[in-house]
């Protein structure tokens, strides 16, 4: 299924050839469109005049969403060797905090015991883990994922678990192409911040390394 998704994402625009071909045949019945070149141009222009306004409309909605999310913010820095990671990928992708970001330990929701927690610690030989009944971390790093018809958004917050004070926040959103996604595939997708620009790349780095920038 993943392979099919990748193929569709790359070659989805080929689906536009279907309406172009239908319109090309229909254009043959219009007296003023006499040559094959004009028929092709007519069919392509009509198809694009329908698809791209729809994409532009949904893209504008995404831009407004990105504007509302704003840029990453660090309100207060702290020193911490570890934290509670409230993220569904804590036991997999979340290991990067120990392997790459320099933290010594991390607590997360247990995947074995509902209501329980797991403590991961970095050692000289790797990462150990043990089940615990309650959290000991003073800091929480929380990842909230939301999705609607045109985009998906991950909001990352770092906060003091005792006071609830937010120490930092950052967001990353992806545009799926909106209503035109089925015929545009990957070519209609966008993200904010965009790693393709220098400013966007820097902002995405701040999102990705938010915990390290706030707590180390």
Folded structure, characterized:
The protein is an alpha+beta fold and 216 residues long. The chain is 37% helix and 27% strand. The protein contains seven helices and nine strands. Strands 1, 2, 3, 4, 5, 6, 7, 8 and 9 form a nine-stranded mixed sheet that branches. Strand 2, helix 4 (96-99) and strand 3 form a beta-alpha-beta unit.
The percent range for strand residues is 25-35%
Query: Helix count?
Result: 7
Order of helices and strands: HHHEEHEEEEEEHEHH
**Helix content estimate:** 25-40%
Structural class designation: alpha+beta
How large, in whole angstroms, is the Cα Rg? 24 Å
Any descriptors?
27% strand; nine-stranded mixed β-sheet; alpha+beta; 216 residues
List the helices and strands and how they pair.
Layout: H1 2-11, H2 17-27, H3 36-69, E1 73-74, E2 82-86, H4 96-99, E3 105-109, E4 117-123, E5 126-132, E6 139-147, E7 151-160, E8 166-175, H5 181-184, E9 190-192, H6 198-208, H7 210-215
Parallel strand pairs: 2-3, 2-6
Antiparallel strand pairs: 1-8, 3-4, 4-5, 6-7, 7-8, 8-9
Task: Produce a short descriptive summary.
By secondary structure, this protein is α+β, with helices and mostly antiparallel strands. It has helices at residues 2-11, 17-27, 36-69, 96-99, 181-184, 198-208, 210-215, and strands at residues 73-74, 82-86, 105-109, 117-123, 126-132, 139-147, 151-160, 166-175, 190-192. Strands 1, 2, 3, 4, 5, 6, 7, 8 and 9 form a nine-stranded mixed β-sheet that branches.
